Structure formats: structure tokens, C-alpha cells
């Protein structure tokens, strides 16, 4: 175990995966893009791109949440995983902003409310008048990105600054930004989820949507954090700061958010089912037709029951052979769940299987590009905060001294 | 007074000495023995070869039982025994049963955990042979006590006593079963 040095070491994470994802995904995306523009004026591509964007954007948001919760709770164990969470969160700056541009440009194709009439003719548009217009769309989206930009850049900057100076002031500043940030995060996450995703069926209401989107986002982000942690442990990059029980902690959070995500999704269904009002039930009726019915059953199994029972026993949380497949399942299910939310607005009844290749292409391509950026960011800086006040605690040096002595004692007698 | 033996008890002075002794006892093939310490000692459970408690499974069984029970009750009352249409809903539907069944599942799980804990610990009981030993009280203060049960297959009053003494145990005593 080496103590922090004056020359912070650079991380050297290697992966051939992003390159392959860009190559395969890019090819499929280009073919799909041409097909989509020739058949339906880019509508299919717009939906597909929105779906992929929402997937990665929710994961970046979840990572931002983890960074802020780390500061707000003054946590010790999560120091080691904080740095790459910061880099994941900083994808919310120009990388995801660029990825959002196609969504913005194709907005008239994606969002039916842009062509659903004027406030004078449509009550639903009138109720949301200044926001539900094209300028309103751009301005609102710009405000979201401005807040995330400010938040993630402040948190990253101070964290990197602390590597150089070791100043406690940085920790205080990061705590301050997390304080207002968590409130801004809750508001922007709710509104962006409603505005970009739920508004694909703009006639629908659900008070549960924000918390449901939050739970699913952090849930998927935790699965990514787990897999990235395992990869960084295997490459020996985070060995000093990743202990066995930290994986248990992430596993516990994953279990908690499995419950929360399932609970919010069920509660939303339950309220609509009970109230039985045509203005709300149409959303679910549409999702009971054709292939969407099958998908909804798959989601009940794959998003709730399988991860829940896989994560329930105490030992599986630290068993990579079980948890890595579970995390991959969670990623797939999160994507499927977003698809379940977004796509039926455009594909009622049956989804054409040929367009699945386009969806696969956009998600691979965008993931590959974002992973490249993430790895470049990660490798440009030290792999974990070098002078965090809680670093020794995360390394297991300070509070486990007695433990180590006992272990040495017991070991010495062998 | 009965001469039935409950087990053998030995005192150690430090957590380290206890861990070393526990390792040897475990390696000696003993199964029915226990350690009593004034505070939790990390790693002792590993040395003693403890596995996870079975209480979780009892709680799971209790929860599952209650969940199915209440879902079944609702089906029986609403769809089988006395069907009445309420709010235009189907006589029986999964979302309808979920909330009561879920809440009673929590109840069942809690009861299962409680009953399982009592059952596995063989509680409640009025007395324990160890409480008859004056010296045993020091396990709550400054001594680390090991007790090897007479019901262990490898137990032998003389050999086990010898083992405890060679491990550095002080005041090795026989604990009698009391009627």
C-alpha cells in the first residue's frame, strides 16, 4: 500500500470496447439514419437517438447524485470511487450537450405537442403555454444544461484542485456546492425527465414520474459504478482504495434502488389503475397492445424480481460472478424501461423489429463515444482523490488499526 | 446434585490469545463450542467457522407465507365466496391485492425473523448452566472465555481440559448441568 505522493500518478485505464462500439454502432446508425430519413423524415432516428441519449444522460445524472451524496453525508468509503463518478458526471457538460443537439433539431418530429395546435385550439398546450413552444423547448433545455454544467464543473474542479493543494477549503466548497446542488438536481432531473421523455405522450399526467425517473437513473448508474469499479480493481488502478466491503456497500445501494425503482413504477401503475380515468389509463392501455405487453412482463421480471432476489443474499453482493451479470441485466432493463416509456408514443401496437438495429446502433455508437471521452478524462488525472481528508479511512488505514494488529497476531500463531 | 457435565470453560486474557486458541480448537475438529467476550472481536466469526444465520430464511418463509395468504384471502372474499362489483374493476386482479399482501408480508417477515431468532437460540429459557459459574461473570468485564460443550463428539473431559490448558487457558473448570 503506497501513501499519496507529491506527484500524483496518472491512471492508465485501457479498453478496446469503446472503439468496437463506435465502429459497429456507427455503421448501424448511418444505415438507420439514411433509412429513417427516406422512410419517415427522420422520425424513427429522432426517437432512437432520444432513447440512447436518455439512457446515458440518466447514468451521468446518477453518478452526479452519488458524488453529491458522498459530500453531503461526509462519507469515507466512497472516496475511491468518487473520482470516476465525477468524470461520469462531467459527461453532462459538452459531451452530452452535443449528443442532445440531434434531439433538439429533430424535436418537431419527436414531440407531438409541437404540431398539436396553438394555445387557442388545444387546452393542454395552453396550460403549459410558454414552455411548450419551440423557443420554450430550447430555453428550458439550455437552463438544464447550464445548471449541470455549473454543478459538475465546480465539483470536478475543486476535487482536482485538492490533489495539488490538499486544502480542506476544497472539501468545504464541494460540500457547499452539493448543498444547493442536490436541490437543483432534484428539480432539473424531474423537469428534464418530464420534458424530454414523458412529453412524448404530452396528454398524460403522472405525479410519480420524477421520482420514478430519479430512482431508475441512480439504479442504472450504480450498476455502471459497480462494473467500472470491478474493471478498475482488475486492472490494479484502484487497488489501494477499493476494499471487499465497498463492493458490498454498492451492492446494498443497488438493492435499495432496485426496490425504490420497482416501487415507484408500481405505485404509478397502481394509482392510474385505481383512479381509472381515461385521461390517464390510455398511456397504459397503449402499452398493453402487441409487443409492449410482452415487454412490460419482461420488465416486471427483469427490472424487479430477478435483480431483487439476486441481490438479496448477503454474499452475492461481493461475488463478481453473480453481480456482473446482474449489473449488465440492470443496464439492459433500464434501457428497455426507457424504451417502454418513449417508443410506444410513436409505435403503438407493434414495434417493427428491423428498427431494433437502429436502436442498437445509436446506443452502441453513443456509448462508445462517451466511453472514449470518459476514459480520456479519467486517464488525464489521478485515479482517485489524492489528498482527500477521508482518504486514509477509505484505504482502511486509520480505523482498522486494531483489526490489523489482531489479524497479525492471529496470523503470527499459524 | 446431578453429575452431568455441560462442558469445559477456560479464561484468556486478551483478544489475541482468544483468537489463537479459537483457531486451534477449530482445527482440532470441535464443533459445539462458543466464545464469550466483553466486546465484539473482528475476525472471530471467521476463525470459528461461522456461517450466515438461518434467520433470514425463516423470515423469507414467513413473508412469503403471509403474502400468499393475504392475496388468497382477498381472492376468496372478493372473487369466490361473495363476488361484488366495486368501481367497475375485475373481481380479482393482481394490483388490487398487492398493497395489503405486501404490508402483511412485512408483518410475516418480521414475525418470521423474531420466531426464527428465538427458535435458533433455543429461547426463552429460565436458566443456563454457565450462569451457575461465578467466574463466568468476568466474560462481561475483562476476560475472554471459551466453552467447549460436552455434547461435542470429540469432547473428552481429560483431553479437552489438557488442550485448553496447553492453549494458555487459565482456570479451566468443568461446568455442570443443573437440574
What do you see in this structure?
The complex is a heterodimer of chains A (414) and B (179). Chain A contains 16 helices and no strands. Chain A has one domain (39-395). Chain A has 414 residues and is mainly α. Chain A is globular and about 75 Å long. Chain A has helices at residues 17-40, 43-72, 79-89, 94-105, 107-110, 123-127, 134-165, 168-197, 209-234, 244-275, 278-286, 291-311, 320-342, 354-379, 391-395, 401-412. With 179 residues, chain B is of the alpha+beta class. Chain B folds into two domains: 5-51 and 126-176, no CATH class; 55-120, no CATH class. Chain B is 45% helix and 14% strand. Chain B has five helices and four strands. Chain B has helices at 15-27, 44-47, 55-81, 94-120, 157-166; strands at 5-12, 33-36, 144-149, 170-176. Chain B has a four-stranded antiparallel beta sheet. The longest helix of chain B is centred in the middle third of the chain and has 27 residues, at 55-81. The radius of gyration of chain B is 25 Å and the shape is elongated. The A-B interface holds A 266, 269-270, 273-274, 276, 313-315, 402-403, 405-407, 409-410, 413-414 and B 15-16, 19-20, 23, 41-43, 47, 52, 56, 87-89, 95, 98-99.
The outline of chain A comes out as globular
Largest sheet of chain A: none
Described by the principal axes of the CA atoms, the overall outline of chain B is elongated
Instruction: Provide the low-confidence segments of chain A as ranges.
Output: 1-6
Give the helix/strand layout.
The complex is a heterodimer of chains A (414) and B (179).
Chain A: H1 17-40, H2 43-72, H3 79-89, H4 94-105, H5 107-110, H6 123-127, H7 134-165, H8 168-197, H9 209-234, H10 244-275, H11 278-286, H12 291-311, H13 320-342, H14 354-379, H15 391-395, H16 401-412
Helix pairs in contact in A: 1-14, 2-3, 2-4, 2-8, 2-9, 2-13, 2-14, 3-7, 7-8, 8-9, 9-10, 9-13, 10-12, 12-13
Chain B: E1 5-12, H1 15-27, E2 33-36, H2 44-47, H3 55-81, H4 94-120, E3 144-149, H5 157-166, E4 170-176
Antiparallel strand pairs in B: 1-3, 1-4, 2-3
Helix pairs in contact in B: 3-4
Amino acid at each position: 500500500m503506497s501513501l499519496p505522493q507529491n506527484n500524483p500518478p496518472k491512471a492508465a485505464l485501457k479498453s478496446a470496447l469503446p472503439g468496437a462500439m463506435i465502429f459497429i454502432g456507427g455503421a448501424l446508425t448511418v444505415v438507420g439514419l439514411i433509412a429513417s430519413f427516406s422512410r419517415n423524415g427522420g422520425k424513427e432516428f429522432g426517437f432512437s437517438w432520444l432513447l440512447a441519449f436518455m439512457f446515458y444522460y440518466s447514468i451521468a445524472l446518477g453518478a452526479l447524485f452519488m458524488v453529491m451524496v458522498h459530500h453531503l453525508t461526509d462519507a469515507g468509503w466512497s472516496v475511491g470511487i468518487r473520482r470516476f463518478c465525477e468524470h461520469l458526471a462531467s459527461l453532462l457538460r459538452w459531451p452530452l450537450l452535443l449528443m442532445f443537439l440531434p434531439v433538439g433539431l429533430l424535436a418537431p418530429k419527436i414531440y407531438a405537442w409541437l404540431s398539436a395546435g396553438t394555445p387557442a385550439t388545444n387546452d393542454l398546450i395552453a396550460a403549459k403555454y410558454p414552455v411548450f413552444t419551440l423557443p420554450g423547448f430550447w430555453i428550458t433545455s439550455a437552463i438544464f444544461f447550464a445548471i449541470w454544467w455549473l454543478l459538475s464543473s465546480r465539483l470536478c474542479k475543486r476535487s482536482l484542485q485538492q490533489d495539488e493543494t490538499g486544502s480542506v477549503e476544497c472539501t468545504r466548497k464541494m460540500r457547499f456546492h452539493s448543498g444547493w446542488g442536490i436541490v437543483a438536481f432534484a428539480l432539473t432531473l424531474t423537469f428534464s425527465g418530464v420534458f424530454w421523455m414523458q412529453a412524448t405522450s404530452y396528454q398524460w399526467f403522472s405525479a410519480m414520474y420524477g421520482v420514478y425517473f430519479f430512482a431508475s437513473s441512480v439504479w442504472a448508474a450504480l450498476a455502471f459504478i459497480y462494473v467500472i469499479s470491478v474493471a478498475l480493481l482488475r486492472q490494479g488502478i484502484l487497488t489501494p482504495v477499493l476494499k471487499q466491503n465497498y463492493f458490498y456497500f454498492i451492492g446494498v445501494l443497488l438493492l435499495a434502488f432496485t426496490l425504490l425503482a420497482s416501487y415507484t413504477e408500481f405505485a404509478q401503475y397502481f394509482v392510474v389503475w385505481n383512479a381509472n380515468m381515461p385521461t390517464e389509463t390510455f398511456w397504459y392501455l397503449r402499452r398493453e397492445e402487441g409487443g409492449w405487453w410482452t415487454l412490460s412482463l419482461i420488465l416486471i421480471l427483469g427490472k424487479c424480481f430477478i435483480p431483487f432476489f439476486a441481490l438479496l443474499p448477503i454474499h452475492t453482493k461481493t461475488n463478481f460472478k453473480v453481480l456482473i451479470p446482474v449489473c449488465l441485466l440492470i443496464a439492459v432493463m433500464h434501457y428497455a424501461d426507457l424504451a417502454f416509456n418513449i417508443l410506444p408514443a410513436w409505435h403503438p401496437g407493434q414495434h417493427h423489429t428491423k428498427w431494433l438495429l437502429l436502436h442498437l446502433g445509436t446506443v452502441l455508437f453513443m456509448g462508445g463515444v462517451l466511453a472514449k471521452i470518459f476514459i480520456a478524462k479519467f486517464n488525464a488525472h489521478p485515479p482517485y482523490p489524492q489528498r482527500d481528508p477521508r482518504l486514509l479511512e477509505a484505504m482502511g488505514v486509520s480505523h482498522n488499526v486494531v483489526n490489523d494488529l489482531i489479524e497479525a497476531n492471529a496470523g503470527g500463531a499459524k | 446434585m446431578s453429575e452431568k457435565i455441560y462442558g469445559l470453560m477456560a479464561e484468556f486474557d486478551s483478544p489475541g490469545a482468544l483468537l489463537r486458541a479459537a483457531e486451534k480448537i477449530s482445527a482440532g475438529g470441535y464443533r459445539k463450542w462458543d466464545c464469550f467476550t466483553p466486546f465484539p472481536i473482528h475476525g472471530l466469526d471467521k476463525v470459528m467457522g461461522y456461517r450466515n444465520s438461518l434467520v433470514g430464511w425463516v423470515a423469507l418463509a414467513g413473508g412469503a407465507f403471509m403474502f400468499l395468504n393475504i392475496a388468497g384471502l382477498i381472492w376468496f372474499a372478493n372473487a369466490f365466496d361473495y363476488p361484488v362489483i366495486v368501481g367497475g374493476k375485475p373481481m380479482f386482479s393482481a394490483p388490487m391485492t398487492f398493497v395489503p399482501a405486501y404490508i402483511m408480508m412485512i408483518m410475516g417477515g418480521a414475525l418470521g425473523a423474531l420466531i426464527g431468532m428465538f427458535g435458533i437460540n433455543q429461547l426463552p429459557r429460565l436458566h443456563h448452566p454457565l450462569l451457575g459459574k461465578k467466574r463466568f461473570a468476568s466474560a462481561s468485564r475483562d476476560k475472554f472465555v471459551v466453552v467447549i460443550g460436552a455434547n461435542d463428539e470429540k469432547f473428552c473431559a481429560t483431553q479437552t481440559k489438557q488442550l485448553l490448558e496447553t492453549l494458555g487457558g487459565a482456570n479451566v473448570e468443568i461446568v455442570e448441568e443443573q437440574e
